[in-house]
Structure formats: C-alpha cells, structure tokens
Amino acid sequence: MKDLIKAINGHLAAEFQASHTYLAMSIWLRKKDLAGFSSYMLAKSNEERGHASRMIAYLVDSDETVELPT
Ligand SMILES: [Fe+2]
After folding, report:
1. Å from CA of 14 to ligand 1 middle
2. Mean pLDDT, rounded, for 8-33
3. pLDDT for the residue numbered 43
4. How many CA atoms lie within 13 A of 41 on its CB side?
5. Separation CA 35–CA 29 (nearest Å)
6. What's the 32 CA to ligand 1 centre distance in angstroms?
7. How far is the CA of 5 from the centre of ligand 1 (A)?
8. Cβ distance 25 to 41 under 8 Å?
C-alpha cells in the first residue's frame, strides 16, 4: 500500500506538469489569434488538473498524505 501511495503522489507531478504544458500551449495559441486551438488546449489543461483532483480526493478519502509538487 505504501508503494501505491508513493506512486500516486509521484503521478500527481506528472498530471500538474501536463496541465501546465497544455496551459502554456493555450497561451501561445491565443497570442497567435488561434482562439479555437487555444480553447482546446485550455480544456486539455483543465482535464489534466481534474485527473490530479481525483487522485487527491482518493488520497484524502483514504486518510493518506497528499504531497503537492512545487
Ligand atoms: Fe492525466
């Protein structure tokens, strides 16, 4: 169980990194006046954050420690 909790906490970083990358792409596309593509990437960013939120909820509901990445 300890390995699973460690792995989930480690995966949180990947989800937030993916969210951040999609957000950066969204901003870049918006600056290029590609609003549709920008909105798509923003939705992907929010989707990745949603994945992280679900894992956080699991950890909290399981009385485990959540280690938010910096
Ligand atoms: Fe994800």
Report:
1. 8
2. 97
3. 98
4. 17
5. 7
6. 26
7. 17
8. yes
Residue with tokens 């390995």: 3
CATH classification code of 2-61: 1.20.1260.10
Q: Sketch the domain layout of the chain as residue ranges.
A: 2-61
User: 């957000």: which residue's tokens?
Assistant: 23
Query: Tell me: the pLDDT tens digits for 22-44?
Result: 999 999 999 999 999 999 999 99
- Sign of the CA dihedral 23, 25, 30, 31? positive
How many A from CA of 59 to the centre of ligand 1? Answer: 16
Total residues belonging to the chain: 70
Q: What is the pLDDT of residues 38-68, one digit of tens each?
A: 999 999 999 999 999 999 999 999 999 999 9
